[in-house]
Structure formats: C-alpha cells, structure tokens
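Annotators were shown the component list below and the corresponding predicted structure, then asked to write short factual statements about the assembly.
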Amino acid sequence: MPELPEVENLRRGLEKKVLGQKIKKIIIRRAKLVSGPGNLRVASKKKAKEFIRSLTGETISRMDRRAKNLIFRFKSGKILLAHLKMSGQFIYKDDKPFSIKTPEGKHTHIIFELSKGTLFYNDIRTFGYLLYFPNEQALGKAAPFKDIGSEPLSAEFTPEYFCRALKNKKTNIKALLLGQSAVAGLGNIYTDEALFAARIRPTRLALSLKPKEVNNLYSAIKKILLKTIQLGGSSVDTYRLLDESRGSFAKEHKVYGRAGEKCLRCGSQLISKKIAGRTTVYCPNCQK
DNA sequence: AATCATCCCTGACCGC
DNA sequence: TGCGGTCAGGGATGAT
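Structure shown to annotators:
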C-alpha cells in the first residue's frame, strides 16, 4: 500500500509529467470516488458534476505531498487532493485517450485528458478518493488535513519534536505511529520496519520509551524513509509508479510480510499479532 | 481530549 | 469447477 515513499515518488513523477498542463476534459466513471469540501462520505453525482465543472480548464502549477496525500495545485489557486489509500494508482500516458490502445481498465475510475497526455486514476478496492477545494483555506479545514504531524523528512521533525509527540501518550507505539498525528506518512510497512530497526516492541506504550529508544526510533524512521524513496518505494500489492513500474524496496523488508520466518538479526521466529487493527510482525526476542 | 470500534471494497486464498 | 467464508488495510466518522 502506498505510504510516504511511494506517494513521494509519484509526486516526483507527476511533477515531471503534468506540470504546466491544462485539464481539457474529465471523465468520471465512478462518482463515489470524488467529492469536495465537507463530509467525505457524502459523495454524489451532483458532487461529481461540480468536480468536473470546477477543475476543467485549470492549469497544473505545482505538485505537493502532505503525509500520504497528493496535492495538485492550479494556477487559479484551486486544489485537487488525492489519497490512494490501499490500491489507488495514477498512471500517465504521453498520448491522447483516442490513440491509446487500451485506455481504460476494469478499475479505471477517473480519466483526465490533459493538453499533452492522459492521466488515469485506477483503484481496485476503491478506498481512495479525489477531492477538489476552491482555495487553501478550504483545504486546511478538510478532514485529511487536520491533525497531521510533522513531515519526518522536514527540518521541523527534530528529536525534540518527536520526544514531545510521544510524551504522556498512553497508546501503544504502533498505533501512535500509524495515527499520522505524531508523524506524517507512515503506514503499516514502515512502522514495522522502523520499530524493528530500533529494537522496540510494537506493543510498548509510547510513554514507556526511554530517551535512547526514542532517539533510535527517530533515526530509524528517517533512515528507512530516505532509503526507500531512493529505491522507488515498495511494490507490495498494487502499488505502481506513474509509468506502471514497481519500486524495489520490497526486497529489503526485514519484518513486513515475514511472519514465521527467521529474524535476520537474531534468528528467532518472527511473530504476527494484530495491533491497532493491523497485522504487525516483530521479533519477540530482540524487540524489547 | 483521548481512545476505540466500525465501515468502506475487491481480489486472493482456502476448504469442501 | 464453483461456492461461501475469511482476510488484507487507511483513516473518517461516530461512540464512549
């Protein structure tokens, strides 16, 4: 599933391909996936029409990322926010829809015809969504933007910040890292990988971590995210880069997807346990 | 305010 | 072969 490194790679790909292009036409095949300001669960055909009206003719002027959200900014100040959730994909083709042999798959839900090419939004499980906002202020009030913590690769994310974010938190460290409010952009894969690297058991309460452990976890998060971005992300499941290629970090996973196998550090058998509603894999011997 | 449970959805997999 | 059941998971939302 796309997490920070995957979304960041996609952002970079989009920056190269769609910046400066104008949206000529939008085709929405599944209205449920688009919405605008207000309650995300209230999507409708009316909202889909509004989405089309609002963004057709707009020129893409900037590509940003915040946590796992992709943000298209337009010259006019309007904004399109996309969250891929479990299985969303953006695929770009340097052709017009009519010249692409198989322009639509079974899971292609939204198509943007741009001035020079075509951008497809595919999503098997349809958890993802695309939201439009008239301006920055409206975006700031939106649910996906409220209560998001610091970007772990920004200057704002310091050891002191991280320490404060964990202080007095009675929830377990795994749930806290998944929650986005302490650190932005971590999901199930990198949370497990970071906790393994820092030798911390995922069930530990955040407030129980010693200063040394907090520091180790802080460093592990940064190191793993940086490395993964360089490798193009992890292609587990349906994640693809903009040109449909896969990232290569999946080969590097030390614990994710390795339940029952041997710990690469101490040789003990890795165990799997549901924590915070997610399958969590860790080493019962060397993660204390 | 903080924490927790539920729900959305499809494909893969398993046992019969 | 087909069918039903189970699982996977991010995070908005509503309940406690």
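Statements collected:
1. Chain A has two domains: 4-142, 159-282.
2. The radius of gyration of chain A is 20 Å.
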